[in-house]
Amino acid sequence: MYDSSLIKLLESIFGPDTPQDSLTLLQTAARAVLVFVLGVAVVRLGKSRLISRWSPLDVILGFILGSLLSRGITGHASLSNTIVASMALVFCHWVFTYLAYYWHGFGNLVKGHSKLVISDGKVLEAELRHSNISQHDLYEALRMHGVEDVKDVKRAYKERNGEISVIRAEKSSG
């Protein structure tokens, strides 16, 4: 089915699919490059938002993919199983994000939802406590948005990705 000389060449470069012995340094490097390229391709095909905006769903995928891909590089898992498992995880992520887009309740379940933490210049202590955000963290986030006084905030939310978004109060002219 496969040309044995091609298989021997690939095994000399990458080592066997599931190595029994230690890989050479060059085989480990070749596997690292191959797994990196295939990992990027799998994530791009899955249309993952791992770089742009992290939700809990994205974080879990990132951790699992990192662990899975590293095992393929070091030879603790076969290359074929590494790639198939990576593709399955990214497909599952794609399905979850697709369902979250069309079904708001599912989106809240897997990604969480925003919480109002400031309303009309007043800090909502119960929501801060529920979200495990200290006053220091809240004021830091406000400063990152260029806000020095909480009274200048109409609303602020702890978003699904954990960041604080700020809507400034309109300044009264007069």
Give a structural overview.
It is a single chain. The protein has 174 residues and is of the alpha+beta class. It has 2 domains: 4-109, no CATH class; 114-168, CRO Repressor. The protein is built from 7 helices and 4 strands. A 4-stranded antiparallel β-sheet has the order 2-1-3-4. The mean pLDDT is 84.
List the helices and strands and how they pair.
Elements: H1 4-14, H2 25-45, H3 56-74, H4 79-102, H5 104-111, E1 115-119, E2 122-123, H6 125-130, H7 135-144, E3 153-158, E4 164-168
Antiparallel strand pairs: 1-2, 1-3, 3-4
Structural class based on helices, strands and sheet pairing: alpha+beta
Number of domain modules: 2
Number of strands: 4
Average pLDDT number: 84
Give the strand content.
5-15%
What is the terminal separation in angstroms?
83 Å
The total count of helices amounts to 7
Enumerate the spans where pLDDT stays under 50 for 5 or more consecutive residues: none
Q: Main sheet? A: 4 strands, antiparallel
Q: Output the radius of gyration.
A: 24 Å
Summarize the structure.
The chain is an alpha+beta fold and 174 residues long.
